[in-house]
């Protein structure tokens, strides 16, 4: 007797929406959680390198501010993208619209919700890190 034969399940055993379960790819979840953290830490490293070059090597501070603002803008846009993707994934997985009643019951839902909060906090951190150059000169800020 062979027990390796596969038998198809009767059609009434399958759930109504069995054709496409709500699944988010793992690489998308990893991007949603880590992109904002990598953007924030990359901005910190770029801040140190650009400020060091402008102040130590006596480069023009106004010309050094332009790449800093461009890098800040690009990394902030990356954080917004990760936050938007996280919110869409969480909304798709949970079906809730109110973020105040959010729960992460499964791994995918939890990672999407964590991506939303990480993107919000580190997006505010990117703005906070970029604000002093609107007020102070680059080399004055480092003293």
In short:
By secondary structure, this protein is mainly alpha-helical. It has five helices and no strands.
Structure, described:
With 143 residues, the chain is an all-alpha fold. It has one domain (28-142). It is 69% helix and 0% strand. The longest helix is centred in the middle third of the chain and has 34 residues, at 61-94. It is elongated and about 55 Å long. Mean pLDDT is 79; it is low at 11-21.
List the helices and strands and how they pair.
Blueprint: H1 26-56, H2 61-94, H3 107-130, H4 132-135, H5 138-142
Helix pairs in contact: 1-2, 1-3, 2-3
Keywords:
143 residues; 69% helix; mainly alpha; elongated
Beta fraction: under 5%
**Rg over CA atoms:** 23 Å
Order of helices and strands: HHHHH
N/C terminus separation: 82 Å
Helicity range of the residues? 55-70%
Q: Which secondary-structure class do the elements indicate?
A: mainly alpha
In total, how many beta strands? 0
Total number of helices: 5
Number of domains: 1
Poorly predicted ranges: 11-21
The largest β sheet comes out as:
none
- Based on Cα principal axes, name the global outline: elongated
Integer average pLDDT: 79
């Amino acid at each position: 007797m062979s027990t390796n034969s596969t038998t198809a399940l009767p059609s009434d055993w399958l759930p109504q929406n069995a054709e496409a379960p709500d699944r988010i790819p793992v690489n998308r979840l990893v991007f949603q959680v880590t992109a904002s953290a990598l953007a924030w830490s990359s901005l910190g490293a770029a801040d140190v390198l650009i400020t060091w070059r402008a102040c130590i090597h006596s480069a023009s501070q106004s010309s050094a501010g332009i790449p800093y603002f461009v890098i800040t803008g690009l990394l902030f846009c990356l954080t917004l993208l990760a936050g938007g993707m996280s919110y869409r994934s969480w909304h798709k997985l949970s079906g809730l619209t109110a973020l105040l009643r959010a729960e992460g019951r499964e791994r995918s839902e939890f990672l999407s919700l964590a991506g939303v909060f990480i993107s919000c906090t580190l997006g505010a951190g990117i703005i906070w890190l970029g604000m002093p150059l609107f007020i102070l000169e680059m080399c004055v800020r480092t003293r």
